[in-house]
Amino acid sequence: MTGLALYDKTARDAADIVIARYSTSFALACRLLGPRPRTHVRTIYALVRVADEIVDGPAVAAGLSVPEAEAMLDELEAETYRAIAQGFSANLVVHAFALTARECGIGEDLVAPFFASMRTDLSTSTHDDASHDDYVYGSAEVVGLMCLQVFVNAGEPRPRPADARLVDGARRLGAAFQDVNFLRDLDHDAFALGRDYLGIGSGTVSRDAVLDRIDADLAAAAATVPHLPKDCRRAVTAAHDLFSELSRRLRAAEPGSGRVRVPDPVKARLAARAWLGFSPRKVLS
């Protein structure tokens, strides 16, 4: 393997390493995807992770000011658009993402809202209902929609839009994932980053109300899983069930008791259940 083919493979391998280092749970779910969508989904999450690191700590730790971090985020977004248009980037993670975007029909309509939400983290510390919804759409729902484009279009001669029912399921699953993570990181976001995504700190929404919204989104998303391509269902089921378990544990935990986690043996059981072809678990409050 030489030339562009070697470069493409190296870029995809680099994306795989990013995901393996940053999220063991996501890496596990990806292994349940079929070979057709698996590499593409990893490239999406690698770009998401790099952008997130610009606004969530490492860039500041390296000495960047907020304006410098914002400029770097702008550069990453511009490079992403160039790579999608040209089919090449000197940034390996961006190059890998662009390969996926070109094959699967991921365009600026999904990429721009993501970067807009990342930019919000540099300027907004407290969210109301409207800004929460905008942030979640850009930071999580569009990522679900990017993955859905992969599920539907990977390996096809030309990309096509996904069914509206699947679009709704992807958005609601992404929203549930993000709100679960907000609840898990509530103390860290408040004290380390000075952010309140949910309005719990300001008293505008209750913890139980957020959990009720999460469970409703998980239930709605679960109903769409049987309509996904077969080689995607097990991974989505595993991810759904992991976050359903997190939601259940969050509801049972005392506020301020530490970051809620799912023990590795429980993760393994959920993954095995999904691998065997079971439908997503019912949400248990």
TrEMBL record:
Q: Write out the GO MF terms.
A: transferase activity, transferring alkyl or aryl (other than methyl) groups
Protein origin, superkingdom:
Bacteria
Q: Which Pfam families does this UniProt record tie to the protein?
A: SQS_PSY
Q: Where, by residue number, does the polypeptide cross the bilayer?
A: none
SUPFAM superfamilies assigned: Terpenoid synthases
Name listed for the protein in its UniProt record: Phytoene synthase
Specify the species.
Microbacterium aurantiacum
